[in-house]
Amino acid sequence: MPPPSASSSLHLIVLPEPFFVIKLKPGEEISPCIVRDLKAGKGSFYSITRTSEEVSIVGEMYKSMPAQYKEQATWMCIKIQGPMEHNLTGIMASMTAPLKVAKVPVFALSTWNTDYVLVPKDMIVDAVTTLERDGWVFAQGLKGNRLARL
What we know:
The protein is an alpha+beta fold. It has 4 helices and 9 strands; from the N terminus they run ββαββαβαββαββ. The strands form 2 sheets. Strands 6-7-5-1-8-9 form a 6-stranded mixed sheet. Strands 2-4-3 form a 3-stranded antiparallel sheet, with no helix packed on it. It comes from Gymnopilus dilepis.
């Protein structure tokens, strides 16, 4: 299912650092170091989502982050360049459908401006190759298994 538009806002970017995904039980305290780093502006990406069943914390690895989170940094992130118009439909479905066929697991997040799809670190090359074959364009991605500007 190729991208629904050729707009550069739908081009993809592979973010350079691994991401962590942590699940806490309801009522379990968020690590004080994460709260401190959020307040101090450390790290370039954090998402904290609370439901009645869990708290999910997703973030991009950074130099001074606690070891317990570095150990969980087993994902790479593909970002839709954005910002996207809110009347667009099917973007996430279009992006994840070929990954499903290729058996690449995903963890998806959305913000006001755009969408993010995390894939296991050891499958990032497969994910990029699959999406390129499907017609997606990478503004920044992998080159020779290394992140590079295209």
